[in-house]
Amino acid sequence: MSVAALKTPEPELLDPAQLASELAELARKHRDSELRTAVSQHLKARLIAAKKEAERLLLQDRHGRGCAERLCEMHDAIIRAVYDFTREHLYPSENQSDAERMAIVATGGYGRGLMAPFSDIDLLFLLPYKQTAWGEQIAESILYCLWDMGLTVGHATRSIDECVRQAKADMTIRTGLLEARYILGNKTLFDELQTRFQKDVVQGTGPDFVEAKLQEREERHRRGGQSRYLVEPNVKEGKGGLRDLHALFWIAKYVYQVGETEQLVQKGVFDRTEYRIFRRCEDFLWSVRCHIHFVAGRAEERLSFDIQREIAVRLGYTEHPGQQDVERFMKHYFLMAKDVGDLTAILCAHLEDRQAKPQPMLNRLVARIRPRAIRTLRESDDFVVDKNRIMAAHADVFQRDPVNLIRMFRLAQKHNLAFHPDTMRLITRSLKLIDSDLRDSVEANKLFVEILTSEEAEIVLRRMNEGGVLGKFIPDFGRVVAMMQFNMYHHYTVDEHLLRCIGILAAMERGDQPELGLANELVKSIQPEHRRVLFVALFLHDIAKGRPEDHSIAGAKVARRLGPRFGLNAGATDLLAWLIQEHLTMSTIAQSRDLSDRKTIENFAAVVQSLERLKLLTILTTADIRAVGPGVWNSWKAQLLRTLYYETEPVLTGGFSEVNRQQRVDASQQEFRINLKDWPSEAVEAYIVRQYPAYWLKVDLEAKIAHARFMRAADVAQKKLATRVAIDKSRGVTELIVLAPDHPRLLSIIAGACAAGGANIVDAQIYTTTDGLALDTITITREFPEDHDEERRATRIADTIEKALAGEMRLPEVVAKRAAGRGRIRAFALEPTVLIQNSWSNRYTVIEVTGLDRPGLLYELTATLSKLNLNIASAHVATFGERAVDVFYVTDLMGAKIAAPQRQAAIKRALLHLFERKAD
């Protein structure tokens, strides 16, 4: 007797016989008018209790698929109980006619026999012909009971002919019926549907179904962000999620006529190892999804920051040095998502062999070329090309020459070839050949650097990463594969971010992303020998993330070790290490320092030391910010980097500059004149005089035009106090432009009014005009998806700002009522720091405050500085996800720096107290 036969079957969480007995007892106790409500409430209570038990079992055994099966069986038991109760007590039929036959069928996800705690239920009431009065009563009674229980039920009532006809016309209905599962009723009807579906719908339509499902998958990925490495992934719909596994099985079931995944091994699609990977991925993803539903108490599919840590704890993850428990959990998640992608690639290759899918290419953006028969490559006899895919010519091709593990990717890159899954499988089995000898091989490293610095580098590096080669060939990179950073700033895992950086640098060289600004121009002017250094620096700049040591310093050490291996001489290696150690410096200074302060520029120039370094750092910084995620890079940041570059250039060149400061101011003003032709020339000149030189260098043209029109409208209306709302779709934020008489507490009042209006400030640009007005642009997080809703909200906040500046409201009291923080922010812990520096400016003391962002934080900081009798000359507000970095240039009331240690300590205590009070 087998072990499986000896295993004790798991008890059902809802026993059908017991449910039937309980409902019969309710029928004896309640009148007809009360019975339906009593039944639905009783079943609802039983289902809630059963779900709690299912959650307990999931926490105990951590088997996600088992939990999904239990939940499905529970709902089956409920539906059977309701059906039997309805037939026996509500609509009994002694002698059913042939037309009154009915089968109740689960379709879609419910038909698969797996469901999450709060998933929808899809039911098909299957009839032999048209609907009868009895059948309609039965279906309605079941549906109303399920709805009264709070369940979300999708349903259809169709005959077999209707099912077949609609499945032919609609791919969604066809997919739902593909997973149809008999629950109860007339089994003959269900069997007839299955037979007709296979014969009239499935037969001969495999290629059409495959193409439709793959297109649907591509569109779903496009909507979700195209990457499986998003740090807040959608477990159901995201790339590498459950829907991809479902699509894989739908296609397999449709084309190969299999009922279970294990049968794909018999068909030769998967080997045993790959089948085990499929089951492991499925079980893990179902565990995560079920836990998300249980924690959220609803049908939530996104693994958001505010629940990631709790899910990690539930799954048993613990902290390691340099990595939090939640980061280890998410790394495991992304590795599983990668495995799902690999399984999909394997299946697609088999479909191509069956001619059920279009032919592949390395780069889908390249025009299609006609596939040729198997051919050889002139560079190597070890590889051949089959249907535009590179494949090993012999089974021992990597064993005989391990350099082929790198060479194959270079050949694919040169000839725009996709990778044959059988060869990728062979690579996976050959990873043990990547040892110290191969890593030190001059030829292998030369080939790798050629890959890294070629046009299609991002695509090929990603395939090397997915095949496991990249992490084995460069072990330091292997440490950051699938590593997420638990913060709201970075959208991707570390390895995905690094690969995207390479793609962006290639885009700069092509010049096809004009929004990257100055970097597009600089990349053409760097010295040829530094191009390779730049690519390597971008590839390595975050490679030391997840270590206890600062990743910039640790990364520089890695670079000094890898530079010679990649063929860099001593000077190039020093430059590489410097770029990595300073890769955050330019971004930090541009976004949080006063660029019109001479000391800021001198200090930055002392770090950079040469014009070539400045160029390289500008390019690296641009690519780094752009690759963080959608909406992070914008014209404001581009303008700040441009300003910092051109302010620093003459310092590095001994006063000589290709475009000096005054020339740049003049050029900016001339550009402004050209784009404001509808104004009289005297009005244009009068406006130009109102703005200081720093304004013309720091603000992009579009904002300058908007500011000018806004200020002119205020002048016409004879208003010294005015506001304007602008929706920035590209960044997903809202801008509030404020014009008001300048005074020391202006920023504090604006920040307080935003807090009173429930707005969270993520950026602030502050300028003073020559006639004593302040022109401030306050950027707040967006609340509503529709522009008209967001505009109404922003207008209310702008009105609040005007009232506050006019002295019509008491800000401290109003802000206090808005003091509660937001859930997403509460998911994070961040140690606040206050840095007070007198060496960053010749005229001002610079106070840098870093801490966990929250609504009203800027108001509290500025109000505290005012209470400390400090004048704020300028403020630089930036938000990096949940981390606020606010920098204030201040003096005392006499206009002097804050030099006394006791005074500095008091300022520091007062500012830190704001974070401690909130934490309490």
TrEMBL record:
Residues 1-373 are annotated as: Uridylyltransferase. Keywords: Hydrolase, Magnesium, Multifunctional enzyme, Nucleotidyltransferase, Repeat, Transferase. Belongs to the GlnD family. Modifies, by uridylylation and deuridylylation, the PII regulatory proteins (GlnB and homologs), in response to the nitrogen status of the cell that GlnD senses through the glutamine level. Under low glutamine levels, catalyzes the conversion of the PII proteins and UTP to PII-UMP and PPi, while under higher glutamine levels, GlnD hydrolyzes PII-UMP to PII and UMP (deuridylylation). Thus, controls uridylylation state and activity of the PII proteins, and plays an important role in the regulation of nitrogen metabolism. Uridylyltransferase (UTase) activity is inhibited by glutamine, while glutamine activates uridylyl-removing (UR) activity. GO terms for molecular function: [protein-PII] uridylyltransferase activity; phosphoric diester hydrolase activity. Its EC number is 2.7.7.59, 3.1.4.-. GO terms for biological process: regulation of nitrogen utilization. This is Bifunctional uridylyltransferase/uridylyl-removing enzyme. The lineage of its organism: Bacteria, Pseudomonadati, Pseudomonadota, Alphaproteobacteria, Hyphomicrobiales. Its cofactor is Mg(2+). Residues 494-617 form the HD domain. Has four distinct domains: an N-terminal nucleotidyltransferase (NT) domain responsible for UTase activity, a central HD domain that encodes UR activity, and two C-terminal ACT domains that seem to have a role in glutamine sensing. Residues 735-817, 846-920 form the ACT domain. The gene is glnD. It holds the Pfam family HD. It catalyses: [protein-PII]-L-tyrosine + UTP = [protein-PII]-uridylyl-L-tyrosine + diphosphate; [protein-PII]-uridylyl-L-tyrosine + H2O = [protein-PII]-L-tyrosine + UMP + H(+).
